[in-house]
Write a structure and sequence with these properties.
Shape: elongated
Order of helices and strands: HEEH
Strand order of the largest sheet: 1-2
Helix content: 40-55%
Number of domains: 1
Number of strands: 2
Strand content: 5-15%
Largest sheet: 2 strands, antiparallel
Structural class: mainly alpha
Length: 77
Amino acid sequence: MAELVQDRISELRALSTAVQDSHSRSTRDALLEHARMGRSVCESDGNGKVVWIPPAEIFARYGLDEFGRPKTMEETP
């Protein structure tokens, strides 16, 4: 019985990880799509305030240049 419970817990952990990964990819794709269209997005700053994030900052979060292209070796610090 304990082994069955342990197996089920492992399955649920793996499923939870897969859901979190999928959510992260979907969020990244949506943010980058908005940035490519030149749209800023809003988010909470953690202190109860809403801040607008410009496209260049969205690209920078994912290691892209201000135009959404991968940075070249010269641009990488």
